[in-house]
Specification:
CATH architecture of the largest domain in chain B: 2-Layer Sandwich
Largest sheet of chain A: 5 strands, mixed
Largest interface: A-B, 55 and 66 residues
Helix content of chain B: 25-40%
Distance between the termini of chain B: 42 Å
Helix content of chain A: 25-40%
Order of helices and strands of chain A: HHHEEEEEHEHE
CATH class of the largest domain in chain A: Alpha Beta
Number of strands of chain A: 7
Number of domains of chain B: 2
Strand content of chain B: 15-25%
Structural class of chain A: alpha/beta
Distance between the termini of chain A: 96 Å
Strand order of the largest sheet of chain B: 7-6-5-8-9
Shape of chain B: elongated
Oligomer: heterodimer
Order of helices and strands of chain B: EEHEEEHEEHHEHE
Chain lengths: 182, 175
């Protein structure tokens, strides 16, 4: 630095950095910093976030704290009331559609879709006073979903969702079978 | 915030209009900051899956603490094209930090020893009891229930009482 200063002050030899800056201040206009790389980087970042981010707020969970059982899925000896049974069976060979039926405490009924299932369960629960937060533990109506072996997971979760939506808290899933229980 | 290009003089003396980049850079920076603050980087826990979409879902937000997520992965389209019988079967089970096959997770006998041990060690690592561990089953909707029920049974056998099923929820976060 000292050498550069002395060179510029003496005015001999090549102009140094400081000398060039002084010259720039004196006459020639300052150039703006190049913004193109900055914009490029920002655009890349935006595209990265748009493509790489997961909008986790659209994903949630249904609590499935099943009634306590001895081992694995199934029915518990602690359950006091006869359960409502929801039978799920594939309606076609591919399993893309589902047949829904109820049995047990609610009686044998054929259900057209999940919306109707929720309505039936909610009406029955309110009529018998077995749903809601104020219901004592011994009066809580259990529901068991019985999927046949080839039922898709999506339908089981949907049926579970409807039972919880109808106000039931004791919802369980029975082990799958090759045919619905008789 | 950002200095932009202003007007300038063309090569032949006439005024050449440069595009003012300042508002664009400002907006871009705001967008970058917005994404940085609001989005969650896709973690290995949330692998891409076609989750169940229930009619009027009541799903709640994901538990943030003391959770273990078990992802039940389907086979890829290429594998299914070669062998259509695998269309609704589970290919792998992902539980941080490992990926399991059915045999490695449940054992050849299907007693689920490895899964139980994993859950118990996860709970012990967090200093909680196994029954306080929240296990989220995150399975593809097209997979047969029979593939998932074994996992569910093992989770219950391990003593986990808090089981949750991952679903898509509406934008408002359920009912």
């Amino acid at each position: 630095m000292a050498d550069a200063k002395s060179t510029s002050e003496s005015g001999k030899g090549q102009p140094t950095f400081i000398a060039r800056r002084k010259k720039a201040r004196a006459g020639t206009p300052m150039t703006n910093p190049p913004l193109t790389p900055l914009i490029d980087v920002f655009l890349f970042l935006i595209i990265f976030f748009l493509l790489g981010c997961k909008f986790a707020q659209y994903e949630g969970t249904i609590p499935a704290n099943l009634p306590k059982t001895g081992s694995g899925l199934g029915e518990s000896s602690e359950i006091a009331l006869p359960p409502i049974r929801i039978m799920l069976q594939p309606a076609d060979e591919k399993g893309d559609t589902i047949t829904i039926a109820t049995d047990g405490a609610i009686g044998k009924r054929s259900v057209s879709d999940m919306q109707e299932l929720c309505t039936i369960l909610a009406e029955w629960g309110q009529k018998h006073g077995v749903v809601g937060k104020d219901v004592p533990k011994g009066r809580k109506q259990p529901i068991f979903i019985h999927p046949v072996l080839k039922v898709r997971w999506g339908f089981v979760v949907d049926a579970f969702n409807q039972a919880v939506r109808a106000g039931y808290t004791e919802v369980g899933v029975a082990p799958s079978r090759n045919a619905p229980p008789t | 915030m950002a200095g932009g290009g202003g007007g300038g003089k063309g090569a032949k003396g006439g005024a050449a209009l440069n595009i003012n980049l300042t508002p664009m850079i400002d907006c871009t920076m705001l967008l970058v900051i917005f994404f940085l603050l609001t989005t969650e980087i896709a973690s290995s826990n949330f692998v891409a899956l076609d989750l169940p979409k229930p009619t009027i879902p009541i799903g709640r937000t994901f538990p943030s603490e003391n959770r273990v997520i078990i992802n039940v992965m389907p086979y890829s389209d290429e594998v299914i094209q070669k062998d259509p019988r695998k269309a609704h079967r589970a290919a792998t089970f992902e539980m941080e930090p490992r990926r399991y096959t059915k045999d490695t997770l449940l054992g050849v006998k299907g007693d689920g020893r490895s899964l139980k041990a994993q859950l118990q060690s996860s709970a012990a690592g967090r200093g909680i009891d196994t029954k306080d561990l929240t296990v989220v089953i995150r399975s593809d909707a097209k997979i047969d229930y029979s593939e998932v029920e074994m996992i569910w049974a093992c989770i219950q056998d391990a003593g986990c009482e808090k089981v949750q099923l991952a679903t898509w929820i509406d934008k408002k976060g359920g009912e």
